[in-house]
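Thanks for the sequence, V.! I ran Undecaprenyl-diphosphatase right away. Repeating your input here for the record:
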Amino acid sequence: MDVLWEIVVAIILGIVEGLTEFAPVSSTGHMIIVDDLLLKSEELFNPAVANTFKVVIQLGSILAVVILFWDRFMNLLGLKKDINGKKIVGPKLSLVQVIIGLLPAAILGFLFEDYIDSKLFGIETVVYALIAGAILMIIADFTQKRKKPTVETVDQITNKQAFLIGLFQCIALWPGFSRSGSTISGGVLLGLSHRAAADFTFIMAVPIMAGASFLSLLKNWEYITTDALPFFIAGFIAAFIFALISIKFFLQLINRIKLVPFAIYRIVVAVIIIIVFF
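Predicted structure:
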């Protein structure tokens, strides 16, 4: 019965991770509500195992992005000429632009990793981040209402825009702010369409998240034991499947519904956390 419950917990957490990692709603905030309040995986397992599990399921979400953007990544690496069977006419997103976008958050994350882990992962700071991120998203949407986007597709992004979006990504080092929330908002404020900003966000997320996840796994490799393996595998598969569904749905909707509905949802999540934990 205990093993079965462990698998159920793993699947639930994998679903939460998959649905929220790349939507601008904060996967951290949802993990606090679902795991810390309801499932309490750190009581079910060794806390180090529970934390390692959260890294493993994040890799499931990353794999979903790689598959959905496979042609794009192959094109960036020079291994494929077209995207989804269509040749790009005119400018196209380059690997250099992705690296430019990655550098600010990668450098700051490396320099301040210990501070972030020790000082910013509290429930109170996550609530502030949820609300602050919601405000940024609302500002981005209202700004674009007054000025139409000048960049309709990810291939039209300039080096300057890539760097500035990378600076916005630095805000996501604040747990609860949301990587996609900060970068999509930043992109929209810089003149990108919501879809172009979302595409660039997901492409940038893969190397930086994969790098951080693999480093974390190396530090905690000892906790991936035979006994814990079914727990990890179940969560990884659930995160992968639901990330595929979530990202496809999100990309189809983002240009239509924009960011305000997600901002309102973030505020609701923040209120729930405040009611329950304070």
